[in-house]
């Protein structure tokens, strides 16, 4: 196919929000234990954190990190995970049928975030606990000193408050799999009361109320409306969660997953604004897309049902350790482009998750840490996107998909800063190279700083322990910029980033 793209630096959507590049660490499988925390590992620092993982997280460029769950949070007592380690209890985690040793908790995790340079986004358990434990956690985390819980934090070694800005009011409360899941009515009420109480302590907190766990949930739409009717005044964000996978060998539909994400965002924005209008409120509720990724959930469920050891209570079992292909990375790159395009209303997002569990970074105990294919589009976009997101006009052929209807073969987004710009592109064509021309005259760019592509003759190629660098991005030599026109060839099933000066 051939496609033509017009970029106009005046067609600004919104500033690039650094929080778009957030990620997620849950006490799940080997994300924390035997992932980012492994005291016996050769690269571990004095706190037991693997510095090879820290280096990769920095390279990934993840901004916020949502913690400690996920489904885990709905059975979590935060008090278990602070104070002297030898006194911390072992608990059963019902969400993931695992044992939780509580050797990493808020204070340790906050220390880890200092190493990675990321912002903490904390989830409270309002599924199986009430308002008071949430307020206690807030006092422990954020109050400077001179109260029972802030002094306990100081005594535990965290002298400075953690000053957490973003708080999630529970997790996926619409999901029947959630410990203590609720109807929209029940959740809306408890979320409103918890949020109001937390804001009595600190008006400047940014609170995220749970939206739907996916656009396919039977309650999608109604859930958002009902919940926001209860808490509109008290919260700042509503969450969206979405996971995609190739189903029934239908790669064409899978490559167009961004269309579902876009539909999801549109619908939630419309619903939130509808409630806002009904309330005659000037306030806008933004979206925290705080779980998104590729997840081969169907395959995991089948494997788990057949695995006897999955019925035992185990510490840090190998759960949800998806190995990602080139096609998966192209979809991840495209989903991130979609989040950027919706930066006007999606002002926070979290790739779920960060280490070992549906993650861009994998580790082996005592062994190496490496980058999955999906690592690259995320890290490169996080590094290159800056300034403002601009809306491209894309003339492209389309194709028919079973799941998402008509889809563009080529998708793109661009960002523009004072002295540089970046264009991100995907070619969804399964067999043909796309010939692209991009009118960049309005950007005033004269030079290509970098042009990289992720593609492979085998779209299912993956990076594994044995072949950690099987798939890496390569310089795209076809990119040329002359007379204000950028030309580039995009291989079939590929993701590309071009930085301009
Ligand atoms: O990210 C894995 C799980 O997916 C999370 O725990 C949950 O919130 C979602 O269902």
UniProtKB/TrEMBL annotation:
GO biological process, one term: L-arabinose metabolic process
Catalytic activity, as annotated: Hydrolysis of terminal non-reducing alpha-L-arabinofuranoside residues in alpha-L-arabinosides
Database matches in InterPro entries: Alpha-L-AF_C (IPR010720), ASD1_cat (IPR055235), GH (IPR017853), Glyco_hydro_b (IPR013780)
The enzyme's E.C. designation: 3.2.1.55
Coiled-coil regions, chain positions: none
Domain of life according to the entry: Bacteria
Keywords (A to Z) from UniProt: Carbohydrate metabolism, Glycosidase, Hydrolase
Database matches in SUPFAM superfamilies: (Trans)glycosidases (SSF51445), Glycosyl hydrolase domain (SSF51011)
Pfam families: Alpha-L-AF_C, ASD1_dom
One of the record's GO molecular function terms: alpha-L-arabinofuranosidase activity
Domain annotation Alpha-L-arabinofuranosidase C-terminal: ranges: 290-494
Subunit structure, as described in the record: Homohexamer; trimer of dimers.
Family: Belongs to the glycosyl hydrolase 51 family.
Name recorded for this polypeptide: non-reducing end alpha-L-arabinofuranosidase
Taxonomic classification: Bacteria, Bacillati, Actinomycetota, Actinomycetes, Catenulisporales
